[in-house]
TrEMBL record:
Pfam families linked to this entry: DctP
Sorted UniProt keywords: Signal, Transport
Name this protein carries in UniProt: C4-dicarboxylate ABC transporter
NCBIfam families hit by this protein: dctP, TRAP_S1
GO biological-process terms attached to the record: transmembrane transport
Cellular component terms per the entry's GO annotation: outer membrane-bounded periplasmic space
Protein family according to the UniProt entry: Belongs to the bacterial solute-binding protein 7 family.
Record organism: Mesobacillus boroniphilus
Amino acid sequence: MILIMIFPLFFLSLTSCQTQKVAEDNEQLSREERIVIRFSHIVGEKTPKGMAARKFASLVKEKSNGFVEVQVFPNGYLYKDGEEIDALLRGDIQMIAPATAKISSYVPEWQAIDLPFAFQDTDEVHEYLEGNVGNKLLNELERKGFYPLGMWENGFKQMTNTSKPLVKPEDFRGLRFRIMPSEIIRQQFLELKAELQTNSFNEVYQLLEKNKIDGQENTYSNIVSKGIHSQQKYMTVSNHGYLGYVVLLKKEFWDKLPEDIQQILQESIEEVTAWEKTMARKLNDESLQELKNCGCVEIHYLSEEEKQLWEEALKPIYQRFTNRFGAEYIKQLPRNKEAEH
C-alpha cells in the first residue's frame, strides 16, 4: 500500500511511474466530464488541517490542469463531527481527514495512537508509524474499505477548564469534559473521575458559553481558532495526547480512479504533507503566544513530578488495552523500545 506520511523517511518513491499528460482545456469541461472530489472536514480554515486541505485542492487543480476538482467544505458544513466517516463509506463525499481517535471507532487498534503520554514528541509518533505497528494499522484501514492517502498532524493536546487549575489527577473529579468519541479517551477521563460528553467539536464553544461543560482537551491552534480560550479560565500544558489526522478516501473510489490521477493525488499529498508539518508547528507556536498575550487564561505547565502522578493514575488503561489487542502495540512505543536497550 502507498501512504505519504508527515515525515520524509516514510515517503514512497513514485519515480517509476510517469504521469500522463493531461489535456490543457479541462477547465472548459462540464462537471460531469471532470473528476470532482468533495473533501469534508470539521475544523476551521485557519488550522493546520484547514490550510492543508485548501493547498491540496489548489495543487491537484494545477497538476491536473483542472481535470480534477477538489471541493473543500470546512467547519462541518456538510457533515458534523461523527458523521463524515459514514458519509465517506456511503460515497456521499470522497475525502476526509478525521482524527485518529475517530478512526478507532471503525478500526479499534488505532486507539494505540491515543494512549495517554504514549509519545514525547511528534518524532516519536513518526517512528512508531514507520514500523511494523504502523503497517498493521494501515492494513486494517484497507480491510475496512478505506484508502489512507497520507497523514497530517496538528500537535499535542492540552487541558482547559473554567473551574480551577488542573495540577493533580484528583482535580478532574466531577468536572464536565467534552471529549472526542473514542473509547480510549473515554477511559482516560473516567480514570480521572470526570463527567463526560461526546459532543461535536463545532458545538464546544456554545456548550462552554452556556455553561453546559466545564472543560475540554485540544491543541493550541484548535483552542484559538474556535475561540475556546475566551470561554475558559485555566489551561494546563500537559502534552498528554497526540492529535493527528489520516487523509482517507473510500478504497472503492480510489481503485476506480485512472492511474495518472492516482499519481497526481499522491504527488500532491506528498508536497502538502511536508508543508503541513511545518505549518502545524508554526500555528501552534503562534497560538500559544496568543494565549500567553491575551491574559484570558491562567497557564500551568505540568512539572515532571506532576506528569508522573498523571501517568500513574492512567496506568490501568495500558493493561486493558494490552488485554484486548495484545502487548505488541505497547512494546513498540519508542519509550519502551529504548528501555529494552
